[in-house]
Amino acid sequence: MKEKGFFVLLIVLLVVACTWAVGTGALHMSPGQIAGMLCARLGIDAGAAFNEQQENVFWIIRLPRVLMAVLIGATLSVSGAAMQGLFRNPLADPGLIGISSSASTTTVLMIVLGGKLFGNYESVFGQYGLNVATFAGALLAIIIVYRISQQQGKTNVGIMLLAGVAVNALAGALTSFITLLASDQQLRSVTFWMMGSLGGANWSNVAGILPFCLGCIIGLPLLAKSLNAFSLGESDAANLGIRTERLKTVVMALCAMGVGASVAVAGIIGFVGLVIPHIIRMIIGPEHRSLLVASALSGASLLVMADLVSRTIAQPVEIPIGIITAMVGGPFFLYLLIREKKRTTII
């Protein structure tokens, strides 16, 4: 009963956060006006007064931005929770095996050298050219890490973690090298993108990431039973009939798909996949059926509120959302490290 109440609270918080974010900004909209504009699209007269400017801002600017924050926040959080279960490490996150860093490398490559190396890529992919490159980088990272970690037909989790460290280091070095070749304008674009932002949100971007993010958000909770068994140990999970190799492959593929799509449109947004699952685990425990769904709801609310802060705290300047999440997540990460240190007994 308490768990049901907790989920109701998370849903209410998400609705409140979305309503607050949609209505707050240079042009204010009340909850009644927001409801009226939604009802008007359905052909229902709710009796709320709103003008054309408010309607345009709501449908063209605010709503797609909030929906993108919901999708990305839920994707990063549920991916973090799944990877923490897969690696049996509460400090794991989607960037652990190089997904984010590799995706950022291919994005920087396209921003700086895309025109020289792939002159016609914009005519082929249009506005989705950068998204395709970023997703390809995430997929490349997961393939490299997965192939290296294969040992006698099985995936060695320890080797996978070390391979992820190596991929992160290599991707960081390549990104730095490519940045040296950038012009001032390109350098500004790269720097702003790597700090994370939802400023470019529109309906095309939302539609572009929707299938990838939903695949991750819906697909990972369906693996909750297997992740629960896997938390007992790989051998015990296999004895319970869990196809452990298939589980590792599917979890990593879904995380790469969702995180890659998120990075493509919003840049690198850190700590969401680390902080949220850990907090939820402390509140409701490690059972993955509840943990994954609660993480998705909480991550969506967190990113909606972080984006609201990023675009309103220093108006008219917009602070990159990655800075906001780092300022919240960094101190909490240090707290987790200190907490784990105190719990560890040195023999």
In short:
The protein is mainly alpha-helical and 347 residues long. It has helices spanning 2-23, 31-41, 52-87, 99-117, 121-125, 129-149, 157-180, 184-194, 203-219, 224-230, 234-239, 244-266, 272-284, 288-312, 321-343, and strands at residues 150-151, 154-155. It has 15 helices and 2 strands.
What does this structure look like?
This protein is an all-alpha fold. It has a single domain (67-343), classed as ABC transporter involved in vitamin B12 uptake, BtuC. 76% of the residues lie in helices and 1% in strands. The chain has 15 helices and two strands. A two-stranded antiparallel sheet has the order 1-2. It is globular and about 65 Å long. GO terms for molecular function: transmembrane transporter activity. It is a multi-pass membrane protein.
CATH architecture call:
Orthogonal Bundle
CATH topology: ABC transporter involved in vitamin B12 uptake, BtuC
Low-confidence stretches: none
Dominant shape: globular
Q: Please count the helical segments.
A: 15
Distance between the termini: 41 Å
- Please identify which CATH superfamily we are dealing with: ABC transporter involved in vitamin B12 uptake, BtuC
CATH class: Mainly Alpha
Give me the side-by-side strand order of the main sheet: 1-2
Strand count, sense and closure of the main sheet?
2 strands, antiparallel
Q: How many structural domains can be distinguished in the coordinates?
A: 1
In N-to-C order, the SSE pattern is: HHHHHHEEHHHHHHHHH
**Helix/strand structural class:** mainly alpha
Mean pLDDT: 84
